[in-house]
Structures are given as C-alpha cells and as structure tokens.
Amino acid sequence: MMVTALICGTLFGLGAVFAAIRLVKGPTQIDRAVALDVMLAIVVGVIVLLAAVSGSGITLVIAVVVSLLGFIGSAGLAKLLPRDRQ
Amino acid sequence: MTTIDIIASVALILGALMSLLAGIAVLRFPDTMSRIHAATKPQVLGIILLMLGVGLRIGSPGVIGMLVLIVILQFVTAPVSAHLTVRVAFRNAKGDDERAMEEPAHSASDDGPAQMAQALVEENANKPGGSTNDGR
Known about the structure:
The complex is a heterodimer of chains A (86) and B (136).
Chain A: H1 2-25, H2 29-54, H3 60-80
Chain B: H1 3-28, H2 32-39, H3 41-57, H4 61-96, H5 113-125
C-alpha cells in the first residue's frame, strides 16, 4: 500500500505543478479559473488517498466540504468574471 | 496483499493518473475550451476511480455512504460549473482570437447548446440582422 501511495502522490504532485504553471501564466482569467478547478479536484483526490492509506474514513468529510466549495467557487467566478476584453 | 487490495491499488493509481493527465492537458492545450474539456475529466472519472479504490479498501457502510455522497455531488455539480465557465469563455472568445466562433447576433436570451448551434447555422445561412446583442 505504501508503494501505491507513493505512486499516487507523485502523479498528484506532477498534475498540481502543471496546473499551477497554467495558473500563473494563463492568458485569460478563465484559464486561471480552470486551473484552480483542476487543483481543487487534485486536493479532493489527495484527501481521498489519505483516507485510503490511513484506513479510516474520517477525512472524507473534508472531501465533501472541499468538493462543494469547489462548485461554489467555480460558479461564482463564472458569474463575477469581467466579460469584456474586446 | 489480497486480490481486493490489488484492484483497489489499480483504481487509485488510475484516478491519480487522470489528475496528472488533466494537469498536462491544462498546461499544453492551445485553447480555453479544450482546456475546460480536459479539466472536467478528473472531476468525474478520476473521483469515481478514487472512490472505488477507497471503497474496496475500507469496507464499512458509513464510509461507503460518504463515498457515494461525494460521487453524487460531483455528478451534479461538475457539469453545471463547467457549463457556466464555458459560457463565459464562449462569450469572451469573440474578442480574443479570430478563429473562434462568433456569437450569434440575435441571441439576446440565454440559450443552451442546441439553440446556440441552430443560431450559428442560421447565421451562416443568411446574413445576420441588426445587432441586438448588448449583453444581459
């Protein structure tokens, strides 16, 4: 199980780094919102992986809250981002 | 290391791989809409694979109930948030690059993808009318 945790942690870390690069240099604000969404999905995945490694499901409550907060943040960004650039 | 553990490990690694693919795609794809398309994959398929791995590893009913709750929440919220984001991207893409689709001139009302496609077809068929599009 530790080997699985190491492999999954490496994959999650690489994905988060790539999304962070897009978050820094995204041309538009929508790209940054999308990169933030990907990073939030990775955070949910890491929390779930922590639950799988530790063998107790107590951290899954945090995963529920983070996924709901991700939806609220994404919908709010889509509503409040400036629409012009023309 | 039983068979169930091996299946759970494979599911966890596939879910993590989905996140890595989304990261690479968000970094490498050339367009905002293709990035949104790729970014929606780990939010549904990756979460389902991870939940499958955790549910195979921890078998208690409370944990499985919470996993099903997370999966249902992701199923409901991920397409909605992606649709909201891509709508803003669609309306902004007009001023950004030339090869992006033009917004139909008579779509003052809020419309779905089918009506959007029909409006594009109508706009290509005949000359577009007066610009009544001033945003909502």
